[in-house]
Write a structure and sequence with these properties.
Length: 307
């Protein structure tokens, strides 16, 4: 009896032949099972399993932040379908932050308090946070590029110029693009404006979509005057899980708004959930997140773009 060896079985061992070139039957059975069972399971895992992370904050009925939380305290849906909350990361991680100041003519009465409030806010950031600062009117001016909050330097905000028109959406899109080059995956954008967009090529829909894709939390502080558009920035902040504040021209209370935003940022944490959505079919599932305790309120991004 002559023993010969062929090219090998799926596990890398040579086929063993007895008296000819025909492989043994159990080799064929093993190969068929490997192709029909193991390979489809691997493909199914790649398509169906997606872990989504959301930056969230939770407050109680007194608007005090809550951090003593567990995964079972949350309910989450995608396009109306329940999902499984897996874990919470309650440690406050460093943020990359963009600050946008509207220096158009309509904002001129608030320049002084805007400059002082912004400088105080920067001093309140965690030392490892990084930030940049940009002003916008008919021009977009980068006043300070990315730097860590513990490396504070004079911003000279008392020397702000002002222009006639307002390229609000252009400024937001440029700031969102700059945040892509940040050190940290957790990103936030702060905007002080009256919400009016009078020039430029950007639009609100694109600004919201880009922020959601890059997981940027947008906080808006809107100065109310005769020309203000409160709804625009309110929609942007709500869609991205941020907060918005209306500042009245005669008594803006900008510092109080900045203090609330700093506290919200300090109490942000990460929620992870297992998504059952088929991401080969759904481009942008709509997310709904709520607390089992009806007296608690959670802020979160309203849509998710699969990577």
């Amino acid at each position: 009896m002559r023993r010969e060896y062929g090219r090998g079985d799926p596990c890398g061992r040579p086929f063993e032949h007895l008296g000819g070139d025909k492989p043994r039957p159990y080799h064929i059975i093993f190969f068929v099972l490997f192709v029909s069972f193991v390979v489809p399971l691997e493909a199914q895992y790649t398509v169906d399993v997606q872990v989504v992370d959301l930056q969230v904050s939770v407050t109680d009925e007194n608007r005090e932040f809550v951090k003593d939380l567990k995964p079972e305290d949350f309910l989450v849906w995608e396009d109306g379908v329940p999902q499984d909350v897996l874990d919470l990361e309650l440690t406050r991680e460093p943020f990359s932050i963009g600050i946008l100041l509207d220096t158009s003519f309509s904002m001129r009465p608030a320049f002084k308090i805007m400059a002082k409030g912004t400088e105080d806010f920067i001093w309140s950031l965690h030392p490892e946070d990084e930030f940049f600062l940009m002003t916008f009117d008919d021009k977009l001016v980068l006043k300070k590029d990315f730097g860590f909050a513990n490396q504070k330097s004079s911003l000279k905000l008392s020397e702000l110029r002002y222009g006639e028109s307002t390229r609000l959406f252009d400024a937001i899109l440029v700031a969102e693009e700059r945040l892509k080059s940040s050190h940290y995956p957790r990103r936030a954008l702060f905007i002080i404006s009256d919400g009016m967009n009078t020039s430029g090529v950007g639009d609100l829909t694109t600004a919201i979509e880009q922020a959601q894709k890059d997981k940027i939390i947008v906080y808006s502080m809107m100065l109310e005057n005769s020309e203000s558009d409160i709804s625009t920035l309110r929609m942007l902040s709500d869609a991205t899980g941020g907060s918005y504040f209306v500042l009245y021209e005669k008594y803006p209370r900008l510092q109080a708004a900045y203090d609330k935003i700093a506290r919200d940022l300090a109490n942000r944490f990460t929620l992870y959930y297992h998504s059952r959505s088929d991401y080969t079919q759904t481009r942008k599932p709509e997310i709904k997140l709520q607390m089992k305790n009806p007296r608690r309120r959670v802020q979160f991004q309203k849509a998710y773009f699969p990577q």
